[in-house]
Specification:
single chain; 785 residues; alpha+beta; five-stranded mixed beta barrel; 33 strands; globular; disordered C terminus
């Protein structure tokens, strides 16, 4: 019998019991249906669920409510070893130990007769279907293997170091893994020289002492930047070569024709990309809507390369694309999701060549809202290939030979349509974090030339906003047709992170009054108050860290950052497998011909795909970031002793992490080097505070540092602190008073969305902002999210 209180409402114990009995399947709707609650009871139910979450009895993630620390029913995990009984034990691949503590253990259940592709062992990465165990001791979960992603490696990448007596040692690049140094006999060096980056096969493993290896391949000197990206490729098991069958399928593919397609070759679609782009998979066109009922509105066309026509489900090309999940971009190379014949040729929308595409035509109202949309399988011919700067220069009155003839008929209507849709975007008020993105420019010999921050232009925002519109249209169409799809989802911040942000903002006297539903506008109002002030970069960084990470899911729980109810990636099937799945689903839903999503694909099977490609996306991001760190550490290795200015980008018990203004490189100032006094870690303030002097070093502080050490292979830098914007006294041992921070208390009669000037602190006027990291709106949301 369902327990209810005196008001006829279910009691806390009954709700918790129902959630426990239905792991991974319960939301507010399911609870209301189970206990017969009407719409009027929803407010009380949500209040009770918040109390249960605050008390730690349940956990709310996305739109699902579960037991605390419970795992989803499908996840990617790493097999870490065996227990005392010899059973395989795994742990979730993605797990935040800082927020959630030690990862739960999963007992792997192996069938007597494993299916092909499900035989696993220690060190493998697997896709699991998990269920919670009731036992009080031992692993909390049981896992059944659906698929094995990575087999245990027998080859190791490292740096060869010669020994005086002959032969040498391999120093593995993966210091965090299980790899150890290997002994390499003189006969097994394969001509490797000291400092060469090599791959080595393990030929003998000993119970004691060093294992032995044989050099299989020389990849070049580690002093060459061209070898740096290979370290990340190997360390993260990123597939570098395509299967011969996939290459054969790509070479056998033929250019498209009009069969089964609409002829859009006369529509002057143009591509707008970075100047160094090698593939062009999206093209745009806009015109004023001639419909008198939509006066002031626009017709916007977005055409995307028809990858689904070439990459059919179940083929070798499809298997390789799924294994990779996405393309990976390094400064010196691209590891593509698809072979070059597909990505850089048949599916690249080059000017003047007929290309197959899947297009969406959107009718935009004068207020910028999308009124309707339709999808078409077309044959198109790009009218021009433009760079962002080239298109922007033409609009700003500096057309060149290419853009001059395009200015009035093509570019001006595009910008007019963007100005229109921007009104709806501003009203939607997505999360307005516009953090600078740095780009490494290499010389012809592969060495670092310089690091730049490309200017954010309206041309970038135009393309991003049109791509967002197209992605929303794809999600809406597939939902309307009741087809399964992979959503791009972004959860709202957890209650813990919001509370931590509130506590941090209190230390700056910045108001953060959360009432009602959590919306991006709440964070935007905080940022607007501080724009132009010294603390703006600091608060922007803390707001960013409070956000969840976007991912792929077959379950829709919305996109918090973009403030959208439904969102799916549709616009880059050349480089993202999720977009390819969405294309196939559209082909199936609208009966557009070959390459459709198979009938066997269900939300359950797509949840497995979504879990896998979420992992490959994070793998790519980590590999790209580590490569940039190694390249810059290599670039700075001959500048030991030089001084730089930067900002504190992280504060831990180990010390201060500093991001250099010149290159964006990150390095550590060890806490032991800050002085003779003891420093306490203040988690709420994101600061280290001296116990004697009360000197405080805080996230976002501007600092001057000296480079002490550079380790290119590890991508690590070590600094010495010279001065800081938050120091309260000279570094001569004198006793300063406690540091005071400017106040940002709300002023009566002022709108919370208006910019406020900070009140003067008692210790003096606030400093002027010398940094250039000002919020300009827009952000990288179209591509990063």
């Amino acid at each position: 019998m369902k327990r209810k209180n005196d008001r006829g409402f279910p009691d806390r114990a009954a709700i918790v019991a129902f959630i426990k009995a239905n792991p991974g399947k319960v939301g507010t709707r399911e609870i209301a249906r189970e206990f017969g609650l009407k719409n009027a009871d929803r407010i009380e139910l949500k209040r009770m669920l918040r109390e249960l979450a605050d008390d730690g009895l349940v956990k709310k993630k996305r739109r699902t409510i579960s037991e605390p620390d419970s795992l989803p029913s499908t996840l990617v995990a790493d097999i870490t070893g065996r227990d005392a009984d010899g059973e395989l034990i795994a742990a979730p691949t993605e797990w935040d130990e800082v927020e959630s503590g030690e990862p739960p253990k999963i007992l792997i259940v192996l069938p007597r007769r494993p299916k092909p592709g499900t035989a696993a062992g220690s060190g493998d990465r697997v896709l699991l279907r998990v269920e919670r165990l009731d036992e009080s001791e031992g692993p909390a979960y049981r896992g059944h293997i659906i698929k094995v992603f990575d087999k245990t490696r027998s080859r190791i990448l490292g740096v060869f170091r010669e020994l005086p007596e002959g032969g040498g040692r391999l120093i593995p690049v993966d210091k965090k893994g299980a790899d150890r140094e290997l002994n390499i006999a003189a006969a097994d060096t394969h001509g490797a020289k000291d400092g060469d980056l090599v791959s080595v096969d393990i030929i003998r493993s000993r119970g004691f002492g060093l294992a032995s290896g044989r050099v299989k391949e020389k990849l070049g000197s580690v002093k060459s930047e061209k070898a740096i990206s290979l370290i990340a490729i190997y360390a993260h098991d990123i597939p570098l070569q395509f299967r011969p069958a996939a290459e054969h399928e790509a070479e056998a593919a033929e250019p498209p024709n009009l069969k089964g397609r609409e002829d859009w070759r006369d529509v002057p679609l143009v591509t707008i990309d970075p100047p160094d782009a090698k593939d062009h998979d999206d093209a745009v066109h806009a015109q004023a809507d001639p419909d008198p009922n939509n006066k002031g509105g626009f017709i916007v066309d977005v055409a995307i390369a028809d990858v689904s026509f070439y990459v059919r489900p179940g083929t070798a090309l499809d298997r390789d694309a799924l294994d990779r999940g996405n393309s990976v971009y390094f400064p010196d190379r691209v590891v593509p999701m698809l072979p070059e014949r597909i990505s850089n040729n048949l599916c690249s929308l080059v000017p003047g060549e007929p290309r197959g595409a899947l297009a969406v035509r959107m009718i935009i109202a004068p207020d910028g809202r999308k009124r309707s949309h339709s999808f078409h399988r077309i044959l198109m011919r790009s009218a021009a290939k433009l760079s962002y700067a080239q298109a922007q220069a033409a609009i700003d009155g500096r057309p060149d030979d290419t853009t001059g003839p395009l200015l009035d008929p093509i570019l001006k209507p595009l910008y007019a349509a963007y100005a229109c849709v921007k009104r709806a975007r501003d009203e939607r008020d997505p999360l307005n974090l516009d953090l600078p993105e740095r780009k490494i420019l290499l010389k012809s010999d592969g060495t670092v030339d310089r690091v730049i921050v490309p200017e954010r232009l309206d041309a970038h925002k135009l393309i991003e906003e049109f791509m967002i519109l197209a992605n929303v249209a794809a999600a809406e169409m597939l939902e309307k047709k009741s087809l399964p799809l992979i959503y791009r989802v972004h959860d709202e911040p957890t209650l813990e992170k919001v509370h931590a942000l509130q506590e941090f903002l209190k230390t700056l006297d910045v108001p953060f009054a959360k009432s009602g539903a959590l919306r991006p506008a709440l964070f935007n109002s905080v940022l607007a108050q501080l724009e132009g002030h010294d603390h703006f970069p600091l608060v922007s960084e803390v707001v960013l860290r409070a956000q969840a990470q976007a991912e792929y899911s077959s379950e829709n729980y919305g996109h918090f950052g973009l403030n959208l109810r439904r969102y799916a990636h549709f616009t880059s099937p050349i480089r993202r497998y999720a977009d390819l799945v969405v294309h196939r689903a559209l082909v199936r839903a609208l009966g557009l011909g070959e390459g459709a999503l198979p009938d066997t694909e269900t939300p359950e099977t797509l949840s497995e795909v979504a879990a896998h490609i979420s992992v490959t996306e994070r793998r790519a991001m980590k590999a790209e970031r580590e490569t940039v760190d190694r390249l810059i550490a290599h670039h700075l290795a001959d500048r030991i002793g030089a001084t730089f200015q930067g900002r504190v980008s992280g504060v831990t018990r180990a010390g201060l992490f500093v991001k250099l203004a010149e290159t964006g490189a990150d390095g550590l100032i060890p806490i032991r080097s800050l002085g003779t006094e003891y420093f306490n870690y203040d988690e709420g303030r994101h600061a280290l505070v001296g116990t004697r002097s009360r000197t405080m070093y805080q996230l976002g502080d501007v600092v001057d540092v000296r480079l002490i050490e550079a380790a290119p292979i590890a991508g690590a830098l070590r600094f010495e602190l010279l001065s800081s914007s938050s120091e309260t006294a000279p570094r001569d041992g004198r006793q300063p008073g406690p540091q005071r921070r400017p106040s940002f208390k709300a002023q009566p009669g002022r709108s919370p969305d208006r910019k406020r000037k900070p009140a003067k602190p008692k210790s003096g006027k606030p400093k002027k902002n010398k940094g250039k990291n000002k919020g300009k709106g827009g952000g990288q949301k179209g591509k990063a999210w």
